[in-house]
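Dear U.,

For the methods section draft, I wanted the exact inputs and outputs in one place so we can describe them consistently. I've listed the two proteins in the order they'll appear in the manuscript figures. Please don't edit the token lines directly; just add comments below if something needs changing.

First protein:
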Amino acid sequence: MRKPNKDNRGVTLIELIMVVAIIGVLIGIMVAGFSLGRSKVGAATNLIDSSLTQARNYTMTRVINYDFRLYVDDGYYMVQVGGQDAEKAMEAKIPIYYKTYAGGHESGWTEVTGSGITIAFSESSGAMKQISPNTYYSKLCIGNPSGTYKVITLIFETGKHYVGEN
């Protein structure tokens, strides 16, 4: 007759709790990293959105052209309204893209680099001014279009804009 092996008792409650705790910590680290990227995109979007509004409003009320400018400097996206000091929007590790609208068609995404983009508004109506004949900026994408991002849609006839999410 065989004796039962006392060393083969299975998993103890302590071991099971330790495995669940380790899995919980790993999930927590992953969620925190994902949230951090999302919060940077959200903060940059809010800064760009409010700066666009400020440039349009200043241009219309002060009858002086306060251009909105978005460019890259020293590894950061910078936002500038008129001649004011530029503000850091976010690190250039997270990309910002734009689309243009010309001749009834919208372009593909183009990354903002170097000297960047400038959006100007009409002093009388607040409408966006053309980049070149019949060409306007139509959208800004903050973040990666295939991942976490927010889009600011620009309405060139009125100069207004709104934020959408993926």
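Second protein (the one for the lower panel):
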Amino acid sequence: MSDPDPPVGSAFPRESPPPSAEAPKWERQLIERLALESLAEQRRARRWKWAFRFTLLSLCALVALVWLWPEWPGSDSGGPHSALVDVRGTISESGGESADHIVAALRAAFEDSGTAGVILRINSPGGSPVQAGYVSDEIARLRSLHPDTPIYAVIGDVAASGGYYIAAATDRIFASRSSIVGSIGVLMNGFGFVEALEKLGIERRLLAAGEHKALLDPFSPVRSEEVAHLRALLEEVHRHFIEVVKRGRGDRLAEDDRIFSGLVWSGSRAVELGLVDAFGSSGHVAREVIGAEDIVDFTVRPSHLDVLVEHLGASIARTLGAELGLGTGLLQ
């Protein structure tokens, strides 16, 4: 006898018959194929994602390299040409115009087989006497190694103090009638806040080993013996500066003591005093003096990042610190 049907409303529903082994398999195959396609698509998406990331990182690295890497001068630049080296801004070991970069550019310019003459284009208010002396000495060395390659200085807006120190080492100096030339002197500056501290009721606590270690401390009273020592130091560095100018300019200098007083002069007056030989631009010197109108720039350019940092105020911060006496040093 067959089992009776369960009563209506029973909690035990009729059981479904088991799937037949003969049931079609296309549903399962379709599901498997869709699953495999989905997995393959995910793998392709991951590969493209990693490829995109790698390409993006490589591009960023390349851009960073271009931005961070300074432009160094090349060599063997072709036929006869005038080699140009720029000196712009404050001459220093780092920041502004690096003495190392100037020297590297000068060496490359002199060693280039096509260089008929070197033009040192100067637009600088001065800087460190040590760094200016480093460049001046290197010019003298390169002139002795390459006696057939002349070097001329061309002054732009200004070649004062350390800027002129470098110019004096060249064969001849050219300028514009309105250029600012000279400032043959040395300075050391700062501030004093002694009375301000007293009025504000601030106590200065300074510990130092060495009687004169706190030399020119802006919060301590000036000591006459220290001032005398520093004046002697400045006079010594000034004498070095004068010797360099006299050695470079020789009997072209006029008999005028004001030349070495620290005053500045126009290009027109500088010609009369013998500080400048003639009027002329870089193009004029290349074409009319050197005889090679084509100009090849050997200047070592700072990286874009250095320029950006400079514009964002790093140089202002350094200058402000020096003016406040936080980093007092010699300046030409």
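Candidate sentences for the figure legend, describing the second protein: The beta strands are 81-88, 91-92, 97-98, 115-124, 151-160, 172-175, 180-182, 264-266, 278-279, 295-297. The longest strand covers residues 115-124.

Thanks,
Y.
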